[in-house]
Amino acid sequence: MSDHAEAVEHVGGTTVTFLYVWVALLVMTGVEVLLAYEQVPTLIMLTSLLGLSIVKAALIIAYFMHLKFEKLSLFLTLFPMLVLCIILMLIFMPDSMRALSMRVVQ
Amino acid sequence: MSEVNAAVMDSVWQGGKSPYAIGSKKLGMWLFIISDALTFSVMLMAYTYLRLSTPDWPKPFIFSPSIIFSSVMTFCLLSSSLTMVMAVHSMHHGNRKATVRWILATMAGGLAFVILHASEWRHLIVDEHVTPFHNEWNVPLFGGTFFALTGLHMTHVIIGVIYLGIIAFAVGRGKFKYEDVEVSGLYWHFVDLVWMFIFPLVYLMSAKV
Fold first, then answer.
1. pLDDT tens, residue order, chain A (106 aa)
2. How many CB pairs lie under 8 A apart between chains A and B?
3. So where are chain A's domains?
4. I want to staple B52 with a disulfide (CB 3.0 to 4.6 A). Which of A96, B78, B95, B128 is the partner?
5. Domain of B117, in residue numbers
6. What's the gap in Å between the CA of A27 and the closest CA on chain B?
7. Nearest-by-Cβ selection for B85 from A5, A18, A86
8. B198: in domain
9. Which of A60, A74, A99 sits opposite B189 (nearest CB)?
């Protein structure tokens, strides 16, 4: 019974898959470093870096942390609220710009 | 009547089965990871806020050697994640010797990361005179946020190496089960995942060619 449960838990996770994910993560890191080397404009740089980081995080969570092969209920319990909390933190960001524009110029 | 009771107990939300079909250790680690993710998110948000509201934020990371150095650190951490996956994989197949070897390889990757990181801190502190409260660019918040963020992450890596050491030792002696190795793997991948955000936001955004 428990053997069966463990076999079900491991569907999809082969060594080759993990190698592909590792290579994909390295390639994306390489692209990030290249962007830094080329000194792309700040906004494009920040957007691309964050985009790549989110894809990398998703790959790590899905394959290395095995969440892709768990029950959907686990994902739905853990992640929507995490993403919501992080988005809520962004509410402070406009204030950081305001602080800069209100600075007394000497 | 007993058939009805059995059906109720089998229902997912009646305690007959685990609702998430995972053990309590694994669920506990996932909950810890989510709360730790919020801690790191807050710190990264604070860093971003302070950086946006500070004119002339310094860019002390010269591409060669600083960025190349931190890229090697990233490589160490990413590769140690792969070896950790292999450790969990081996444990699943009941191969304890291979599990111990893969965990030791993971610890080596983690240690390499810590040593490289420490030498980079030494360079910043000794050569660039950056401390948490003072630096030569008159932006003390740079040191405060940099050391807080990377310091908290490095603490996680060091704790992870110790944690994996305990797991490897016990697995080698025939103790602990598959789930214990898998849960330690979850923690290690999370440490890797956090670095995937610190590396671009703190290092690459402050790179100077």
1. 344 444 444 445 788 999 999 999 999 999 999 999 999 998 999 999 999 999 999 999 999 999 998 889 899 999 999 999 999 999 988 888 886 677 666 6
2. 137
3. 2-101
4. A96
5. 23-208
6. 11
7. A18
8. yes
9. A60
